[in-house]
Structure formats: structure tokens, C-alpha cells
Amino acid sequence: MRYEFRIAGTVSDVVLDEGFPEFESAVLAGQTVLVGRIVDEAHLYGLLARFQALGLRVVELRQVLEPEVSPEVTE
Amino acid sequence: MSPDPSPRHDGGGPGPEPPAAGSVLGGRLRVPPVPATFVRRTRLSERLTLGLRERPLALVNGPAGAGKTLLVCDWARTAPLPGPAAWLTLEPGDNTPGALWACLTEALRRAGAVPPGRLPAAPGAAATGPELPGRLADALAERPEPLVLILDEAEHLTDPGLAADLHTLLRHAGDGLRLVLISRTEPPLPLHRYRAADEITEIRAADLAFTPDEAAVLLRRHGLALSAEGVRALTERTEGWAAGLRLSALAAEHAPDREGYLKEFEAGHSTIADFLLAEVLDAQPAATRDLLLRTSVLDRAHPALADALTGRPDGERILDELAHANAFVTPMDHSWYRLHPLFAEILRVHLRARHPGLQQELHGTAARWLHAADLPDEALRHAAAAGEWELAAGWLVRDLALGRFLTDPGLAAAPGPGECGPLFAELPPDTGGPATELVRAARSLAARDADAAVRHLDRAERRSTAGTAQAAGVGLDGDRPDGDDLRLGAALLRVAAARLTGAVADAERAAATAERLLPRAADRTRRDRPQFTALLAVGLGAVRLWDGRIDAARQALAGVLRPTEPAEPAEPAPTAGAPGVAAAALPGRYEALGLLALAELWDGAPGRAEAHARRAIAAYEQLGLPETADGAIARLVLAEVAAERDDPAAAQLELQRAESLADHPGDRPGDRLRRTVLALTRARLALHRGDPHGALALLGHTPPRPDPEDGHSPEPDEQPWTGSPRAESRVAALVAAALLATGDASAALLAAARGGSDGALVAARAHLRLGDPAAAVAALPPEVGRTPGAAVRALLVRAEASAATGHDAAAQRPFARALAVAQPDRLRRAFVEAGPWPAAYLRSRPGLGGPYGWLPAEFRPPQGPAGGAEPLPVEPLSEREQEVLRRVAELMSTVEVAADLHLSVNTVKTHLKSINRKLCTTRRADAVRRARRLRLL
């Protein structure tokens, strides 16, 4: 599962690199966009708690299509 | 960096005082101080005051740094509360019943909220049970005014079971309790129900946000006077977020043009916390910055520990300055400081960015300091975070603490402070020395994988012999366990493994080793020593019982039951979630009593067996501790004793309790002795219910039936009693009894041959059935005098044999003796299972032995015209009493009845007392039986 998170404001590089090394990030229209793979629900909730612990406000969260469909995930 | 941060060495010199034992939990139980810069907002505090007058629950919800804690701190210190307040700051490790209820009990104790007698006596992580919330609620419900219980950082409570417990507590405590939850997230309580019933006061993020007017006051308190326009813009930019406003003030403090600096910040888009924190951090002097970054790995900082992490002696000064400036840290009890959780999280990120790899080293340093400061649980956590497995394992071995893995089988699943299972969950395979191997063995045993445990034990012993020469070259290292420590740890685990495998010789050898080494280890401080000796003795006792050496088992167990040594403190100081010494040693005592009860039962003394079993259970009830799987044996003994008295309802009740405590389906097979006794009791009760085939199946006895395919029967599965002669003979005797009950006396005779003296009694009965009284008398075991159960059965066989051969008068003497021997323990079963003859014999001779009212009704001559109908109770049962009795008849416990009827436990007990009075009974099982006979149920 790939997810995209939008965080209000520009997150500093220190926090992005050390706090969320597994995510690609970009700044769009005053928001920080993080995109990456989420292993399972536990990962997702852990991540939300982590945003909260670092004082980051999640304004949007959605599942996005995998960039390429690997053979074992075809339904 | 100072390699030896032990506070014991610098106690006399200048510098911070070492931490006091127990200060850590103490700090969490005190209402934190309110800084001078705090802005009281009456719109919020009045809502709390008014809300809690009527409603039992208040929820303060908001993101980190919203000012939740300070709001409630100030409210609790200054507002007119409906009653006294108890505070508890929760930690991630509190998300288990043991830890939470231990902390809550301690909080209630300190608040003096309930009479001391109503609280569990032992503070410790194990001090909980399903009854505890109900008991505390009962105690609270009697208060004249409510207690205000405040739980800060309730976001750590994610376990739905704990939320349900809190819900129960709140509902049953009635007007005796008000609960205030401070949390980042909604707690998993059924909040919708509270909302629907208007029983909740909520203060949420939007309420907590500062208005521009409030923000102006806050900024002025921080020495920042801004124009009204500046305040409005900053409030808008920070969305009224308290931490954002405070950080803005701190960041602007050092800027030459404050208003201009803030304008720039307002115009930017950076996220508030990490941007501002970086700014504030960079504005600090280098030493302060360094200390903040390094102490961010700690949950709480002590000045001396901070010095150990920075390698400079300025921790006390800097922490004190920071606390006064209200920048990052809050002082707790006894000179501990707590970093604001939001800042600590961001600081850790900065630490990783600025000093890659330093975090691990800091954890290692902190671990050593904490261990030297006698805070071993926190030390273990940091050692694990540092990946210093051999160090952590070495401490456990040196402190004789490996037994902790065995005392709580849930350990491996539940994370938390002082709980070693999850700490070692990330232990990489195939690394480390002998101590690490011992930890692996202990974890395997906790998971009941005896084969893996023995493999690790063998490897540990090989490595320790190989490593002894090496260690000698390294020199004296206080943290490292020596060869004796390793051998002691291995001995404990060998005994524990033998309980699973039945390797009796291994256990005896290991116990002898431990006995030899323990006196030598006596000179050192060992927190877990009482637990170690208790576990060793109980393990040895269990193995010896399984092996059938009852006197040897008694001898091993006796040591555990001797009164505890006076050296132990009367009330151990509570540390962060760690079980106190007394509480830790208790399970050993509890299990020892259960095993002694079993020894007496197997010796044929049901009265003494029952007394020991009841003492075991009472020991736990008094302390409010839950019964564990170790207590299953005591319950099984009670079931067997009830069965001997022909009280199937009580026997079934105890069996069910034992089953709920003992091994669950899907578990790996556990303790062999427990499994053996469980199978025996299940089978015996099935036989008593009139289901001999069921009993045979439970004992794995299948009639020999050649397989039609290849002509030989499949190998029987290994049973828990395989290898134990004593247990095997008990099983054989029971199989014989079941076969006799199916009517197959010849098969019974065959099986009884392997059943020892119990089997001989069954054989005698079988001969009677086959019409051979002489053979019956000849088959009786020669020596039964000491054991009432066997003696009664033998005497009844003699009596019946005499009667069958026409010597009616000669039958009288043994029959009267049988009645006399059976009377003290009310051993009805021996009479019932002997078939119709004893009842017929006694009915025809009413004058034989006097008033044997304890025998079943069919043994008594018919009385009066009513034909034995029982008189109705003088006073009818009330409706409530009938409701209670119906539930008791469904085998519900007192607490369950109380919860079901929304009554307090004490009320249910009162009802039970009056039920017993009205029915002229003394126990609930008797009351149920009598009520059934009277058709009241």
C-alpha cells in the first residue's frame, strides 16, 4: 500500500531525514507531501502517532496506486 | 565521558545527590508544578469545576503542547474541587493491567482515598486481578465525597481491556469518583454512551487554543510585549497553539528586532514546532544545547545522569536554569526533571541528525548509570536500546533475576518497564556470550519450548567454560556475572525445564549445584534472591512430586514456607512498575502451598490437603493478587477433595476455575505435573458423573483394537504422566475404576494390577462384583491405615465380603469402623461408589453407628409420613436473593454476580449470607443444592 500524507507547513529537512527516512517528500502550496509504502495498519497508526508526537498536523491522507504493479499483488 | 557514573562513588563530593529509591514513581504521582508564566483561563477551569460537580468523567483532549496538563495542574491546585485529588502521569509501559493497577493503587494509597485495608497490600506490577477494579470501586463508593482521579498522558492507554476496567471502576464507584483524562487521543472508553447520558465534560483542541487576548498575556509573561496587531497575527499563525506561542517567545528573545523576527516567521510556511525548536536550540549556549540533545534519550533526567551523558559537571545548573526559564523541562520529585514530550521527540531527531551513532552510546552510558543507581528496570531498557545484550543479560544473571521470565508467562507479549520478555524480543540470534544464552533459554522456557531451552543451556555451559580463562584476563568487571552466577542461573532453568520434560535426574543435579553455590554468593546484594530460592525450591518440589517422591518434595517445599527473613523490608519501596521483593517471592509461596496440598492428597489425607489448598488461595485473596496458572493445582486439589465428599457441583466449580487458570488449548504443553493432575481430576469427575467412557477417553485409554490395515495398533501418544511411576499408577487405578463402572470387571482387574494400592482397592471391588468375596479380601492392599480414603474403601470391601459369605454379624465391625473413619472428612464418595449394598445395609440397621446425617439421603431410614421431604425454609427468599442464587447456580463468581446485577461485591456477599441463613446452609454449593431440592430454583 502506498500512502500520501499532506502536512500543514514546511517540515524542516532535519525532521524529514531523521524522522521519516522511508518517505519521499516535496513541498507543494505550503504543504509538505510525503509518499511512501505502508506495510500494514499497525505501521499506519504508528506513523500517525509519530506525526502527532513531532507536533505535525496531518491535513490529508490517502492511498495512492502503486507505481508499478508487481505480479504477486494482482488480484 | 565519565566511564564510571556510579553515584555511590561521588556521594561525598560536590554535585547532585543520587536519586532516592522509589522517587521515580513518586514523581509521577504528584501534581506537577505550574510555572510562573502560566496563564489561567477561567473559561476552561470553570468548565471543569462545574462539569465535575455533576458528571463523573472529564476529558481534556488536544495535541501535544496544547497546554492540557498545565490547565489541569492549575485547576487541581487552585479550583474548588468536589473532593481530594489523586494524580498519575502515565507512561507507555503502563498499558498493561499489572502496571496500570499497581500505579493506580499506589496513587489511591497516597491520596488516602480509601482505607488502607481495602487496598492490595503489595505494591508491585503483579498486584492485580479481575476483581481489583470492582474492589476499588466498592471502596470508593463508600466515600462521603468523590475522589478526583486525574490520569495524564492517557493516550498511552490503548488496551481496550484497560479502558473497560476504567469504565467499570467509574460506573461502580458511583458518587465516590470523578475521573479526569488528559490525552492526545480519545481514550477507548465508550464515550458515546457518556455523551448520550450527559455524563462527560469535554475540553478539546479548539477550546484549548489561545485567543489573541490570552496569547497577549502569555507573551507578556515571557517578556514579549507586542502590538495588538502583532499578537493577533502570531495567534493566527500558531493557531493559538500554546507550545507555538511559547516557542515564538523563546525564539524571539535573542533576536535584536523581536517584532520583525516574528513577522518573518509569520510570513513563512514552516511547521511551527520543529522550526521554532531548531531556532530556540541554536540560541542556547553550546553546553545547554549539548545537554538537551544528549538527555533527549531519557524519559526523565537526573542531574548526575545528565553529567554522565555530557561528561561535564554542569547538569544541575543547566537543568535548574531551563526549569526556571520554563523552556523545555519540568522538575519532578527528588531532583528528577522531565523533558516536555513534544520537545524530547524533536530533540531526538536533531540528535540523530547532528551526531549520528551517538544515540546508542548514550543509551549504553545511561544504562550503566541507572544500574549503578539501583534502577535496574530502566537500566535494562536502555541497555536493550543500546543493543548491549550481553550487558543486560549479565545483569539479569548476576542479580539472580532470570526467574522473572518464568513467573509471568504473559511477559513475552506485554511490553513495559521491568518486563524482560519484550526487551529481549529484538535480541539478534547467535550472538553474545553465556549470559545471553541463558536469557534465550529462559525465554524458551517461558514459551514452553523445553527442547530449545535445553539447547541454549548446553550452549551457555560450553561458552562459560570456554570464556572463564578469557574473563580472568580482562580483570575485575563488576557488571559481568562470574562462573558461579552463570551456574546458578543455569541450575534454576534446568529445574524449570525438568518440569516440562520430566528429566528428574537433571533437576536433582542442578538443585544440588545451586545449593552448593548459593551460600558462596551470599555476600552480594541480590534483589531477586528470595524469588530465586523460592522458584528453585518450588520447581524441585514439583519435579519430585511428579516423580512420586512425596516426602522429598515436602522437604524441598518446606523452605519456601518458612517465615520470611527479617532482613526483608516490611513494605518494599515501589519502583517504576517493578514488583517489590515480597510480591515477587509470593507466587513461589502460593504455588508451594498448592503443591503441598497435592502431596497430602496423594498421601490420602484430604482434610490436610484441603487446608493447604485453601491457605494458598487465601494468600492471594488477602493481597488482591490474581490466581495464576501456578494456582491451578490448589484448585484441582479442592476439586478432588470435593469429589471425595461426593459434592459434584463444588468439584465441577473448582475444576472449571483450575481450567481457566491452567493451560489453554493451543498452548504448548506445560508443566507435566499440572497436566497430569488436570487430566486425572477431569477423568475422575467424568466417572463420578456416570460417564466412565468419557473418563477413559480423557486418560487416553482406548480398548486395544488391531488396525485392520497392517494388523498392529498405533503407538499411543505420550501422556504427561509417562515416566512418572506414581502418576502412572494413579492413572491405572482410575482406568480400572472406570472399566469397572462400564461393567467389565475382568478388564478392570487387568488394569488394576498396575494401579498400586489404589488399584488394589479397585481390584477388590471387581472381585466382589465377580462374586468372589475371598479373592476380594485377599486383593486388599496390606497397608491403608494412615489414609482415610483408602481405609474406608478397604473396610467397606471387608464388610461386604463378610455379608456375602453370610457372616452378617462380622460385617458390622468393619462397617462401623468405615463410618467412623469417613466422618471427620465427610468421605461420602467411598460409600456411594461401593454400589447399592452399603445403603441397603445401613437402612436395615438404623442403630448401627448413630446420627450419620452427613451421608446421602438413601443411607438413612425413611422418616415420617412425608417420606423424607425437606421442610421448607422458615423465611422465604427475597426476589433479589433468588436472583443472586440463580446466578450462583450458574457457577458465576461473586464479582461476576455483582457486575451482572449492578450491585457491589459486598452487597452480593450480604445476600449470600442471608441465603445461607435462610436455607440453613454454610456454603454456596450447599445452598444451591438445597434450593434445587426445595424446587426454589
UniProtKB/TrEMBL annotation, chain A:
This is Uncharacterized protein. It comes from Kitasatospora paracochleata. The lineage of its organism: Bacteria, Bacillati, Actinomycetota, Actinomycetes, Kitasatosporales.
UniProtKB/TrEMBL annotation, chain B:
SUPFAM superfamilies: C-terminal effector domain of the bipartite response regulators (SSF46894), P-loop containing nucleoside triphosphate hydrolases (SSF52540). Residues 1-11, 704-715 have a biased composition (Basic and acidic residues). Residues 1-29, 458-478, 694-727 are annotated as: Disordered. CDD domains: LuxR_C_like (cd06170). Residues 870-935 form the HTH luxR-type domain. Signal peptide: none annotated. This is LuxR family maltose regulon positive regulatory protein. The lineage of its organism: Bacteria, Bacillati, Actinomycetota, Actinomycetes, Kitasatosporales.
